[in-house]
Write a structure and sequence with these properties.
Elements: E1 9-12, H1 14-18, H2 27-40, E2 44-50, E3 54-55, E4 60-69, E5 81-87, E6 93-100, E7 107-112, E8 120-127, H3 129-134, E9 140-146, E10 165-171, E11 182-190, E12 198-204, E13 209-214, E14 220-225, E15 233-239, E16 244-248, E17 256-263, E18 266-273, E19 282-288, E20 291-298, E21 305-308, E22 318-322
Length: 323
């Protein structure tokens, strides 16, 4: 399902990753460490396929689940059962089924919908006990709609969920460094769990306006600014129905983060950190499903490291700055 190159970035202390011996800090040593990690702790991935995404009360939701190794994408025989939950817009469990694999290691079954189930937007959640130990980020989620399909093209659905919404914030690289210009992504959802359009502005704790903010696609947007030490920041915004709400941004810290952007078919990667933090050596590691594609010391005299899109084959990547 993922067709674009996607980067994830992390900071890791070198002595905790490869030991204290600097001579062992090489591309081969990193590759060996990743291989050992994957051999000891095989990682599952799960995908759920359904017959369609819209249903009428009293029907069955037919599904098939696939469990594969996250490294090889081959069938994985760790988990014996798959759990499928049907969740309503209030995040309450409506129905749960547990299916075991057949002789071909396939997981399939159905959820029988009650004839009295309320009309609305729902979510199918698929996971195993192994994935449950890792957290919700590893679950498979799929939205479905249950109700009168004659109104399913937008009639009554477009008029629901406008009276309330929430906004979640995602600082680039996972951190929000004090005194440094950094980017914060956000996503706005209404109470039905679908995207919401918002407009507003970022203000500090004194109410001073920092910058304007708006969604640009599917309830998502981003903005950049420089948070000051000791200050607090808020997003004051309105949704399409005119309801105004105020959300607190994540607190800025004395820390490091990483920034990445694409321009002219090149990927640019740089470290962003609180200005008065002591300089430390960093290494950049890029790997795809455990295969090391790039490893080098990061020259902090340069503004960034860049890659041509042609240097990286299509797929999902993990890039680490190791220090």
């Amino acid at each position: 399902m993922i067709h674009k190159v996607r980067f994830l970035f992390f900071f890791i202390l070198s002595h905790s990753f490869l030991g204290n011996a600097q001579e062992s800090f090489s591309s081969d040593a990193v590759q060996d460490s990743i291989a050992i990690q994957l051999a000891l702790f095989a990682q599952e991935k799960i995908h759920l396929h359904t017959d369609r995404s819209m249903y009428v009360p009293g029907e069955k939701i037919w599904f098939k689940a696939y469990i594969v190794d996250a490294l090889t994408h081959q069938s994985l025989a760790i988990s014996r059962y798959v759990y499928i939950d049907l969740i309503n817009s209030s995040d309450s469990l409506v129905h749960r089924v547990v299916v075991s694999a057949d002789e071909n290691r396939l997981f399939h079954g159905n959820i029988l919908l009650s004839k009295a189930i309320p009309e609305g937007d729902y979510t199918l959640r698929a996971y195993t006990r192994h994935l449950e130990n890792l957290g919700n980020d590893y679950f498979f989620m799929k939205p479905v709609y249950i109700g009168n399909l004659s109104r399913g093209n937008g009639g009554s659905r477009g008029n629901r969920g406008k009276d309330d919404f929430e906004v979640s914030f995602f600082p680039e690289g996972g951190n929000f460094p004090e005194g440094a210009i950094s980017r914060v992504a956000f996503k706005a959802l209404n109470r039905q769990g679908t995207s919401e359009t918002i407009v507003g502005e970022v203000v500090d704790k004194e109410g001073n306006r920092i910058r304007e903010v708006t969604t640009f696609f599917a309830g998502m947007g981003s903005f950049v600014f420089r948070p000051e030490a000791g200050n607090e920041y808020f997003l004051v915004c309105k949704n399409r129905s005119g309801q105004e709400k105020r959300f607190k941004l994540p607190p800025a810290k004395r820390t490091c983060t990483i920034s990445a952007y694409n321009r002219n078919k090149r990927h640019f990667i740089q470290i962003i950190q609180t200005p008065d933090l002591p300089k430390q050596p960093f290494y950049l590691l890029v790997h795809c499903r455990g295969l090391v594609l790039h490893f080098e010391a990061y020259d902090q005299r340069k503004e960034f490291i860049s890659f041509s899109s042609d240097q990286l084959p299509s797929g999902r990547y993990t890039s680490c700055f190791v220090r």
